[in-house]
Amino acid sequence: MDQEDLATEQALEGVGARLLQAIQHLGISQSEFARGIDGSPGFISDVGRGMKKPGAELLCAARLRYGLSTDWLLTGTGTMFGEARIDLELFRQIRLFLALTHAAIVQQEPTGRAVLELVRDGRLEKGETDPVLAKWLSQLDVDAVDGQVVAELYNSHVATPDPQLRRGNLLAAAIAYWETRRPFDAFEALRVGPGIQINIGHTIHAPMRRRK
């Protein structure tokens, strides 16, 4: 038996104990648990004593009926009901992106549009060393962002494992959210003006006005 097979066997040895622990936590008897998943009390008893291993039907039913984590039952990984820690940093990032894109797209702030380009290029961390930029970011009203929108973006992106891919997807979602809510301005669409330039570590330069 190789190391992987040995680890699998050792993990499965605890299935019965974890199942009994879950039943006790639920505050019901083994017979009540069995009825809840349309199973046999005798089979549940055998699993609890380590004489038999649970099959896919039992695991699926335990998940659907009682919310028990399949990973936890099989290997002890995670928690009994599969709760995951809230990624507070991701919440902070989403609120920042929504506040930033609101300033850039809805309010049409020049600095906001420039900072948005930094985020797109993955250079926001370097840009935060600029004192002027850092002050502007600190004045963003992230608390005014709609909590429901933050929650929806969180739920739809928290499972993305690649941080860079997730950041790009979140930024695109935030931009799309405000783009659909920005009133169309025909004169703004036709106007072409000079861009914004940010020199990292120096000063934020506003656009120069054209002389008449």
Structure notes:
- The protein is mostly helical and about 210 residues long.
- The chain is about 60% helix and about 0% strand.
- It has a two-stranded antiparallel sheet with strand order 1-2.
- Helix 3 (about 30-35) packs across helix 4, helix 7 (about 90-105) packs across helix 8 (about 110-120) and helix 7 crosses helix 11.
- The N and C termini lie far apart (about 85 Å).
Top keywords for this entry?
two-stranded antiparallel ribbon; elongated; disordered C terminus
Task: Report a brief summary of the structure.
This protein is mainly α and 212 residues long. The chain has helices at 3-13, 15-26, 30-36, 41-48, 56-66, 70-75, 88-106, 110-120, 124-127, 131-138, 147-157, 163-179, 186-190, and strands spanning 197-198, 204-205.
Mean of residue pLDDT values: 79
Q: Low-confidence parts lasting 5 or more residues at pLDDT below 50? A: 192-198, 200-210
Q: Radius of gyration over alpha carbons?
A: 27 Å
**Element pattern in H and E:** HHHHHHHHHHHHHEE
Going across the major beta sheet, what is the strand order?
1-2
Globally, the shape reads elongated
Largest sheet: 2 strands, antiparallel
Helix tally?
A: 13
Termini gap: 84 Å
How much helicity do the residues have? 55-70%
What fraction strand?
under 5%
Derived structural class: mainly alpha
Q: Give the strand tally.
A: 2
Outline the secondary-structure elements.
Blueprint: H1 3-13, H2 15-26, H3 30-36, H4 41-48, H5 56-66, H6 70-75, H7 88-106, H8 110-120, H9 124-127, H10 131-138, H11 147-157, H12 163-179, H13 186-190, E1 197-198, E2 204-205
Antiparallel strand pairs: 1-2
Helix pairs in contact: 3-4, 7-8, 7-11, 7-12
